[in-house]
Write a structure and sequence with these properties.
The chain is of the alpha/beta class. The chain is built from 19 helices and 8 strands. Strand 2, helix 2 and strand 3 form a beta-alpha-beta unit.
Length: about 475
């Protein structure tokens, strides 16, 4: 009996996905560039299962049922292209290659088009949930060649996480690089969520002078509210974890954050598309700032920086902080969905935003209770331009506004950096302001560069230039893009 699917790459994610597939009755053929890893896997975690090994790409192809389905769980970039180049001569028309890594979506666009010319289907699929998700149920976001989806759908939906209503957290996202784009936005929101939580932690620790046990208790209670989420849950675990000397381990971890690039890609795409992804971009810059550890140590001494204690009722501040975190988190998701909407329009993907929320409901890192409310919002209005306009989320934002402003203002006053939480508030203030000072900005552009402007008392699309000094002349430059 031939295999249902082949998987290349036996790092922890690849191994766990294979074991997950085996648990659901699929026969998997496992391959790795080094034969030793195949042997270790077969004699270790895969021992006693129906999983079989392949020690060459030709053996892998020969052991698979047609149309062959081969999933690459390897490092994104040139490694993926290298395996594709080696596989193509061994495959038949109609066979399917799947990239399950964190790939930049333009690469997926390119690969779909190139393989289509050879008669081979390509799927670029985001997979979220880390090691545990891969083993017991990840969120899976496939896109690419739509002809391939019916052959892959049963496997992916079987191994994916399920909602409380047993709905699979996996569905077809769209053509070409749509799946990897949605995964990129997922990771951008993940950056935002993590940064917001760390800002709340610093406000409690440095501003309110709370112990780690106290902070752990707060996060446990917050996880029983609308903030219920995987990241809030694991934060409570982390704050309660003690090192061998009984002290909180988290305080012994160097405060320089790493990143693999997906948050940066999200910010770059937002800039390219003109979407104000302020919170998520701030979270990326916060990681960049954290990496300047030696400079920060010197600057603290140079400026004599000290945070002040936040005065007042601690419980009142904790509730205000909860509301500020919740409101900011909503803005993080709202900005992410704005970016997906623009990308869908530009690329003709016809994304189903309710389905995206469903795919993120379980298995993934940003899974949270209010994703069900996001799905409901897009079920009511599939063309919803701003998540905060939905009645449920609008109510939370309005009810949280006073507390949110209180926390933001106090953080500025006492010197606790909260770049993402404050930028989320500033974004909402800007988004809900009918007239912004960009009129003056546009006058400045016309003054020094003759870039022209539109007038509020003339039809939109009609452009004007003013000789502001009487010396500059009446010839305009190019018109601006709004």
């Amino acid at each position: 009996m031939k295999g249902d699917i082949g998987v290349i790459g036996l790092a922890v994610m690849g191994q766990n996905l294979i074991l997950n597939m085996n648990d659901h009755g699929y026969k998997v053929v496992a391959h790795n560039r080094t034969a030793e890893k195949v042997d270790d896997f077969l004699q270790g975690p895969a021992k006693g299962t129906n999983i079989v090994g392949a020690y060459s790409l030709q053996e892998l192809v020969d052991k698979l049922e047609s149309p062959r389905k081969i999933m690459l769980m390897v490092r994104a970039g040139d490694v993926v292209d290298s395996f594709i180049d080696k596989l193509v001569p061994l495959l038949d028309k109609g066979d399917i290659i799947i990239d399950g890594g964190n790939t930049n979506f333009p690469d997926t666009n390119r690969r779909v088009a190139a393989l289509k010319e050879k008669g081979i289907h390509f799927i670029g699929s985001g997979v979220s949930g880390g090691e545990e998700g891969a083993r017991f149920g990840p969120s899976i976001m496939p896109g690419g060649s739509p002809e391939a989806w019916p052959f892959v759908k049963p496997i992916f939906q079987a191994i994916s996480a399920k909602t409380e209503n047993d709905e699979p957290c996996c569905d077809w996202v769209g053509n070409d690089g749509a799946g990897h784009f949605v995964k990129m936005v997922h990771n951008g929101i993940e950056y935002g969520d993590m940064q917001l939580i760390t800002e709340a932690y610093q406000f409690m620790k440095d501003g309110l002078g709370m112990t780690h046990d106290e902070m752990q208790s707060v996060f446990i209670e917050w996880n029983k509210t609308e903030l219920n989420s995987y990241l809030v849950e694991i934060t409570s675990d982390i704050l309660g974890y003690k090192d061998t000397d009984g002290e909180p381990l988290v305080e012994k971890i160097l405060d320089t954050a790493g990143q693999k690039g997906t948050g940066k890609w999200t910010g770059i795409n937002a800039l390219d598309m003109g979407i104000p992804l302020t919170l998520i971009t701030e979270s990326v810059f916060a990681r960049c700032l954290s990496s300047l550890k030696d400079q920060r140590v010197e600057a603290e001494e140079l400026f004599g920086k000290k945070e002040s204690i936040v005065e007042g009722d601690k419980q009142v501040w904790i509730e205000a902080l909860r509301q500020a975190l919740l409101a900011s988190k909503i803005i993080s998701y709202a900005q992410g969905f704005m970016l997906m909407r623009e990308a869908s329009n530009e690329n003709g993907w016809d994304l189903n935003y309710g389905n995206v929320a469903l795919m993120w409901r379980g298995g993934c890192i940003i899974r949270s209770a209010f994703l069900s409310n996001i799905r409901d919002a897009y079920d009511i209005d599939s063309e919803l331009s701003f998540l905060g306009s939905d009645s449920y989320f609008k109510g939370i934002l309005e009810n949280s506004m006073s507390a949110w402003r209180k926390v933001a203002a106090k953080s500025m006053e006492v010197g606790i950096p909260m770049p993402s939480m404050t930028s989320a508030l500033t974004f909402l203030d800007g988004y809900t302001t009918a007239r912004l000072p960009a009129n003056l900005l546009q006058a400045q552009r016309d003054y020094f560069g003759a870039h022209t402007y539109e007038r509020v008392d003339k039809p939109k699309g009609e452009f004007f230039h003013t000789n502001w000094t009487g010396k500059g002349g009446d010839v305009s430059s190019t018109t601006y893009n709004s």
